[in-house]
Amino acid sequence: MTHQTVSHPARPGLPDDPRANVPAPTPSCPVEITLAALHGRWTTLVIREFLKGDHTFSELREALPDLSDKVLSDRLAHLTNAGILTRHREPGWPPRVHYTLTPHGRSLGPVLQALWDWGSTAPTRHPEDG
Amino acid sequence: MTHQTVSHPARPGLPDDPRANVPAPTPSCPVEITLAALHGRWTTLVIREFLKGDHTFSELREALPDLSDKVLSDRLAHLTNAGILTRHREPGWPPRVHYTLTPHGRSLGPVLQALWDWGSTAPTRHPEDG
DNA sequence: CTGAATCCCTGCCGATACTG
DNA sequence: CAGTATCGGCAGGGATTCAG
Predict the structure, then answer these.
(1) Nearest CA of chain B to the CA of A77: how many Å?
(2) Chain A, 15-54: which have a CB under 8 Å from a chain B CB?
(3) Where are the domains of chain A?
(4) N or C: which end of chain B has fewer CB within 10 A?
(5) Per the CB < 8 Å rule, is A112 touching B31?
(6) What is the CATH number that goes with domain A33-119?
(7) Which residues of A are less than 8 Å from B119 in CB distance?
């Protein structure tokens, strides 16, 4: 599709939705939901691997050698829980677990694209402040 | 603008840019740059206030009563440092500091919109896992 | 009024060792 | 092979207090 049919408010980023009028960060805010899904180191890189195709645990380990087993396991559980991945354990030996991107997970593509686009147009960087 | 003129790769979220082939999370990745800009609790809500218009320190305190002075100060410094806000100290008394969104900061609108849109289409939520 | 300094508590991430 | 259990370091964020 080339264009979304959801109602576009006059000012981008300011949807006229009741959930937008929040006095504090709340998990029910859609923006927070997305940031929570992407939360954590390595998470976006893991999603990026899945945008190329599905993987098993070992394949991911090869693709991201600096990522420890524990954190990889955490990320996969987190993303599965968020409805971004589905887990499929293949019977037999050796045990192999296959992870696949759900349609909802694949729809993260444009989101990552938006993040990439903005980050590519950075003006002047100020290294301090962290 | 209604439409971006940057080259769109065949698969969204998978730009054919050398910076995309990273073996580990690195600050030079545009996605990481954007996530770093939005990083921290309250950050997106502060940006949201500025999408409505510029504010002083006190006005922000009124708009976000549950946000402590220290964290507000941290966020403003962070966003100023990231080129999203500009700081203007008005002479005279009482001291007032005016913060304004830069063009680069205003261009975060579509990014927040993308985050909102994806978070609005969440399928089934699994409360566990945090 | 604006914002920096300090203290404490919590949660993330990495490394290692262990289990089905 | 694919995880879980545990521990330690470190950075984030809230409350309070102090300064320009």
Answers:
(1) 8
(2) 15, 17, 20, 22-25, 29-35, 37-38, 41-42, 44-45, 47-48, 51-52
(3) 33-119
(4) N
(5) yes
(6) 1.10.10.10
(7) 29-34, 37
For residue A121, CA distances in Å to A21, A92, B5, B122 come to: 29, 49, 13, 29
Half-sphere exposure of residue A20: CA atoms within 13 angstroms, side-chain side: 18
Cβ neighbours of A104 in B, within 8 Å: 121-123
Instruction: Tell which of A104, A117, A126, A128 to mutate to test the B interface (max B CBs under 10 Å).
Output: A117
Which two tokens mark A89? Answer: 């354990």
Cβ atoms B34, B84 nearer than 8 A? no
pLDDT digits (tens, 9 = 90+) for B40-91: 999 999 999 999 999 999 999 999 999 999 999 999 999 999 999 999 999 9
